[in-house]
Amino acid sequence: MDADRPRISQRAALGWRAYFAQQMTAEEAAAGWVPARVCRVQARRCRVWLVPAESGAGEGVDPPDEQNLAVALFGEAGLPGVGDWVLVDPAAAGRPRRLERFSVLTRRAPGSRVQDQVLAANVDTLLVVTACNEEFSVGRIERYLALAAGAGPATRPIRAVVVLTKADLADDAERYAAAARRLGEGMPGGLRVEVMDARDPEQVARLGDLCGSGQTVAVLGSSGVGKSTLINAISDAQQKTGAVRGDDNKGKHTTTSRSLHRLRAGGVIVDLPGIRELQLADGGGLDVAFAEAAEVAARCRFSNCRHTGEPGCAVAVALAQGMLDPRRWENYRKLLAEQAGYLEQRSRQDRRANRRLRPDGDRR
Question: Nearest 5 degrees, angle CA 61-CA 226-CA 118?
Answer without folding.
Answer: 70
